[in-house]
Hydrogenase maturation protein, carbamoyl dehydratase HypE
Amino acid sequence: MITEEQVLERIRRARERRPRVREERITLAHGAGGKATQSLVEAVFVDAFRNPALEGLGDGAVLGVDGARLAFTTDSYVVSPLFFPGGDIGDLAVNGTVNDLAVCGARPLYLSAGFILEEGFPVADLERIVASMAAAATRAGVHIVTGDTKVVGRGKADGCYVSTAGVGVLERPLTLDATAVRPGDAVLVSGPIGEHGVTVMLARGELEIEADLTSDTAPLNDLVAALLDAVPAVRVLRDATRGGVATVLNEIAQSARTAIVVDEAAVPIRPMVAGACELLGIDPLYVACEGRFVAVVDGAHADAALTALRTRSLGEHAAVIGHVQDDPPGLVLARTAFGGTRVVDTLVGDPLPRIC
Amino acid sequence: MITEEQVLERIRRARERRPRVREERITLAHGAGGKATQSLVEAVFVDAFRNPALEGLGDGAVLGVDGARLAFTTDSYVVSPLFFPGGDIGDLAVNGTVNDLAVCGARPLYLSAGFILEEGFPVADLERIVASMAAAATRAGVHIVTGDTKVVGRGKADGCYVSTAGVGVLERPLTLDATAVRPGDAVLVSGPIGEHGVTVMLARGELEIEADLTSDTAPLNDLVAALLDAVPAVRVLRDATRGGVATVLNEIAQSARTAIVVDEAAVPIRPMVAGACELLGIDPLYVACEGRFVAVVDGAHADAALTALRTRSLGEHAAVIGHVQDDPPGLVLARTAFGGTRVVDTLVGDPLPRIC
């Protein structure tokens, strides 16, 4: 048993350090992946759990275990609705964890699955989610090897929440790290952005927009492997989920203390996503993808990277969307179609809650 | 993207096989760890995710990764109330995953932590939970290396749910497996039973019982290591969480196709737990512990096992509570204080919901 004093002492010590969470209560923005999430994670979690693996704050931790180099990651899924065009919470949970491992440079191997079910949830819906998880695991070449099920009373959940964790092995000698990013590097995305977020938003039916869109949820491990096979000079990979491409680029720019300049016209985006974002009043750079990653590679290898990605169907619309430069350090800038430049800040608030 | 047909085909194939879940909707009993959980897990999860590691259905999966022998496990925590005498959801989540790894015979190394927070949840409560997780991790000698935070709207959770997953390494050449259990083996528990479940139940304040009880939540890795150092002939270890000692013994008896006979008078239980169970009308053998394990060892080594456990403070009240015999295979029997014998079946229903 941990004594009350030990716990209070830890809270006291944590409070003495910076940064702090200013809010007294959790808001939806704390779950959006942007500024509020970042301050919550840094102030509450990193500070308390302090260790080198966690401080990397990537999509997963890279660990040495008994001579093996492993990646380990977790995500919880609370998407609403549970079923949406192109996927459901099940394949989302499998692909999300597979992708977090893949962008660590690991080959995803094993997944765990934890379910929090609301009393009264239809067993048939659970079967559908589980079948979709099994199909996604087969497609990604991973096994779901351990799990847990909890049930809470009516009104204490929203049907079904899924938590997945994953273990992968790093078979390549590379280290992917945002601090390795340097001026002259090229920034790529693996495909059109924002489809997942907009699809889920429209599936809620609150907006009277109909669009023939499906989520981009997909396992990225093969596409990542194709890129790493072709281009050894990959600096860092990140999957562009919550907070979208803009949030990922901000995190990279801050870690690397460089500027990232995005050419808006070069960003692949389907007209229907662009149109829906305009109606919703959201910048598509902030909209979650669940089957796209951002890669920063040595500028000299940008073409080779692009070619490698485009040979795969998941990467056929990959594009170089920008470059890294010295100034202003830590900032992401976008060159607009009109020739202007704007700052693309970290996400504030949560324009699309419960998207994943 | 997985096609709709692939998903439907998987559901159809799964339905053709046995066992089935008879209920159309999830009930609290599906989360209790007893019969309903077992049928849900077997019918829905094991069938869909079919693979050898999962079919072991222990407290975690044992995996070979890049030459290393790893254990991997997960649990979600939905305990209500979040704070209770002797612990909170935070140390419960850390100790629970540490213990699942320990009873696989692994040395717990790394944990992940996923949070599902309800909008409006006090940040101070989150800080308290996280500090308690950090203290529990330090005590158990593990690192929390990766995590995730999601926020859902008001009324879509109950404050805070925590999911932990864990990775450990199997440094010993042993294989712990319920199918290795054989007639003549001795059954031990590592300490007094039922304290966690009764403490949480009383902390809800619905019953007007006051008792000076605290949860037994604790990391069991050192105690397990002490046992394994002293007694190589340990057949199987299980931590007695949801469904209590009775459920664990039933799972072992079914896997081993042997009978287990428990001597009720030998089961260590604090008078206050026994008294509260009597008032609640619950058999303490079904009440969750969060810092106790059941061990089955070669009968010839029962004394050595007991001595090894009792040298540690967490094991000072360890006891031999029964033995394994041939008949009737798959059943757990209890010899009562009055000299009678009763069948201790797998738990039906959920007498103590949301205990972990």
Chain A has a mean pLDDT of 92. Chain A is about 35% helix and 25% strand.
